[in-house]
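Example 3.
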Amino acid sequence: MSHEHVVVIYPHPDDESFGASGTISKYREQDIPVTYLCGTLGEMGRNMGSPTFANRETLSTFRKEELKKACKALDIDYRLLGYRDKTLEFEQREQVAAHLKEILQEIRPTLVITHYPGYAVHPDHDALGAAAIQAVADMEEDVRPELWAQAIATNFEKTLGKPDIIHDVKPYWDKKMAAIETHLSQASGMMSLIKNKPDFNENEELEHLRYERFYRWKLEE
Amino acid sequence: MEAIDREKVQQAINQFAGKDVYVHLETTNGAYASHFDENAYNVGAFIRNAHVKYEHGKIVGTGGSYRIGLKLDLGWVYAEGVTDYEVDDQNRLLMAGHDREGRLMVALEISETPFTHESKED
């Protein structure tokens, strides 16, 4: 009987599917529970479906529903943190970190996955990643989970070196595609890209999706 | 949303004139613009729930793309590139401009009640 529990902390509905759904599926296959802490509802997203079916005021409702479906497809639990898209970097980091710490102390995960601050492209990714790292650092050592950070910036390996963990998620590809597809308002562009060029070797975007890469975060003592 | 019918939108704009209204105004080229194209710049701005009163407003334009200007006591609210509109079930006038892939580039919305930050309950 394993006591493991994985918590994924990203800011938008669909970050979990694009970024870590292969890894998540791998853990679920081993019967390890996974909980997604989703920072915002992505309500300021630019994609409105294709053809367009959402608008600025209805997008949050669609995305909440999509998140629910994605988490069902991945067989994971989720919690909404209630922040607002695009504004996470302007919140007080200590407050966000304290909020996350409270949830982590309750769930008691053995592993936390989040974005690598400064290498995660979207300001919300950077900000929530930084807050998540702060939250883990603030936990007592005996309950502190392992921490993995995901970089997605172009050529991040040049500065950060080779990632510590590289999951080739090809065995979970169908799961990953199914999870991405639930995010109907957001994923149509990516899905057509995949359907037009389904060969891994010829499609750089597919390569990014196939290898889920993480750095083991070392906390400063 | 549907393609703008200039007369209908003008009527809706007129209905809010002289009233205290809330405005959502936004433009964006997305948070990933410079990630996918290193020569691009990420540009965006939004203001949610600006509480204003306009004396009059106009929608002007041709060829499916419109400009909207609302004249305030001390200034203007302006949006360009607006292509679609909807008067929603809360009687809010929602307008937006989308690119060829249907992604939002600009939005201007007018409401007599504040825009919420919530999604609909399940």
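The radius of gyration of chain A is 17 Å. Chain A touches chain B through 26 residues (CB under 8 Å).
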